[in-house]
Amino acid sequence: MSCINLILVMSFSLIAVLGRISFAHIAVMALGAYASTLLTTKFLSLSFWLALPLGGLAAALFALLISYPVLRTRGVSFFLSTVAAGIALTQVFIRFPLIFGGNYGIPGIPYPDAILGIDFASPIARYYLMLAVALLSVVIIYRLRKSRIGTTIKAVASSDSLCESVGINTFRYETLIFVVGSFFAGIAGVLFAHHQGVIAPENFTMDYMFKVIVWTIVGGTTTFVGPIIGLVMLTLVSELTRHLAHLIPLIYGVVIVVVLLFLPQGLVSIPRRMSPLVRKIQNMIKRVVRWG
Amino acid sequence: MTPGELLQFIYNSLSLSAYYLLFAVGLALVFGVMKTVNFAHGELYMIGAYIGCVLFSFFAGGVPGPLLLFIAVVVSMLVVGGLGIAIDQGLFRRVRADLLTVFLMSLGLSYILQGLAYEVFGDVPKGILPVFPGVFPITGAALPIERLVTIIGAVTLVGLLWFFLERTNLGRGLRASAQDSEAGTLQGISFNKVTALAMAVGSALAAAAGVLIGCRLMVYPWVGETVIMKAFIIVIVGGMGSIGGTVIAACLFGFLDSAIQTFLSTEFTTMIDVLIMLAVLAWRPQGLLGRER
Known about the structure:
The complex is a heterodimer. By secondary structure, chain A is mostly helical.
């Protein structure tokens, strides 16, 4: 599961760099999951390996479709419109039970077909598969951030009017990032579906979405590793408080409020903020040593 | 459609519009001043409803129904209004600079409040005893009296709000800060005081909605989530920060949802509402009566 969460959090932070918190992220993950499920079970009996990119594409297509109305809004309004889009999508899954299985979802999703002699009926093999896909996704996202597109996005994030004045089509770049981020969310959804074997609307709740947001914000949106650190830390916390499972949303809420109050740039900014303090301590030690 | 059915439909739609209006207008007010949405608004509604439940469970025998309802509304408005001020001054004030941060903080806060409510009250749904049972039988339609109370309550409170905003100095100061907070401070209007006031009033209205609706629907820790989505849709379509727009949108969705429930099926209300909201955002992002940003 952590591999799936890793993909989710990295793709989410891609979009978050633009200052856009997309609440539709989990919904497009669900879309990817449902798409690949339908492709491998009800409609055609495609192989998992074909369904994987197609699921991601389905998610990306949806993002493209809603990008016009949704990316025209800023900040909070963007958030709300993605919430709306997410809810609309989830409602579609629930209200059309013939296709999507309604509230009970779709069972009997096949494991990935054996390839190179590896049989994916065993959870360990599936784990390695998900790990491989996760690592590949992370590498791709990393290269994207380092590339010309990535630096352009950073520029757009800090000042879109300035970018537009030098001729950069900010809308196109924002759409690109939104679509790419959603693509990876869809991939995560496909992996989820073929690992769990059954999907239902309850797997893709707002609570899950909230957790993705908290992982990203707590870790720090500005850096590449930030969200990973957020994910790791909070997963640790969740594991340690397992016996209080029903309190976990509350804990996440407290964490994000505390972080936003005191560490707005996330956990990764701790070293940065500590360095003046550290230097002060170093100087004090030097003075004591010299005096002695 | 018989006259009785039509009357029933209009009556139900009005009551639904009143219900929507009451909790959406608080959100719109807060947004107008703070320029960001308070996600915890739904939880303030929930807390108001629980206060009503608690008061009723203690005093339902001794105090007559309508009076107790009135007291419950007033008490919950005061308590939750105070809570709103505390949230604003304690949390939002420190991160006022970044709107997104305020919003994310309110999101976290909503989960915190839900968790606390679950700890204190458990997840068994509670309700306030129906204070006005019975119906007006008119021309073959059955009009529950309870809904008239909702309508009257909503109209009264929103009317008071209108009076406050238009005719009092405090209200005008609030509107001034909402238009341009810097210019407001130049005129001597303290922005911190204004936001505290806006949060107080907005939260109080949410609480009142909670108590009034608690008579009809059940209350449980997560009731805020369903409510706030509706409020967002209404506020976005009406125009963020425009009270008049909220009124229009609330009536629009009140009648629309009522029609969907009567002629189609309740299941489709959320989907259709959301699609309308997306359409409005595509065509006119600032909402029906919103200002250009």
